[in-house]
Amino acid sequence: MKKELVLTVVADDRPGLVGEISKVVADHKANWIDSSLSRLGGQFAGIVRVHVEKAQAADLSAALIKLETLGLTIGIHEHNTGDAPAGAHALLHILGQDQPGMISRVSSVLADLHVSIETLESLVEPGSMSGDLMFRANARIIIPPHLSPTEVSEALEGIAADLMIDVELNEAAVEED
């Protein structure tokens, strides 16, 4: 019988980190299911989901913890197999002049509407014309069945002028896990 683990990983970025982690996973006959790994500010960070035989789970966890001697910080979490939130998938794009609190304000609006954030990627970069720092975010969200995408857009537009951001919401095709 299989057990599902979610691993969190953080380390100073250097070549070979994914190889070190994936070798330990493979050596314990675990299957690397999916992951999101990135270099952020000189750090390597990410999450990985693996399937492992229950009999191998403790040995895999111990081997992964030993990677801490190589400078990795690894969290090991048993995957909660609860159902994903029901609703329509949508893609949310945000663009505006960078300022503190943007994600906090947008995520508060979404939370108040019970909208779930599946993925969120953000970046601050110089604007093409002015050189001012621009904040760009892309999120995959799940809109609960009792709401329409229009209602979510209207709620976000309610803070857009205050934050000086452009908000675009598009329906997304459902992807199977």
From TrEMBL:
Name listed for the protein in its UniProt record: Glycine cleavage system regulatory protein
Annotated organism of origin: Pseudovibrio denitrificans
InterPro entries tied to this protein: ACT-like_dom_sf, ACT_dom, GcvR, UPF0237/GcvR_regulator
SUPFAM superfamilies: ACT-like (SSF55021)
Gene3D superfamilies from the UniProt entry: 3.30.70.260
GO biological process: regulation of DNA-templated transcription
Domain ACT, chain residue ranges per copy: 6-81, 91-172
Transmembrane segment boundaries: none
PANTHER family documented for this protein: UPF0237 PROTEIN MJ1558 (PTHR34875:SF6)
Pfam families found in the cross-reference section: ACT, ACT_6
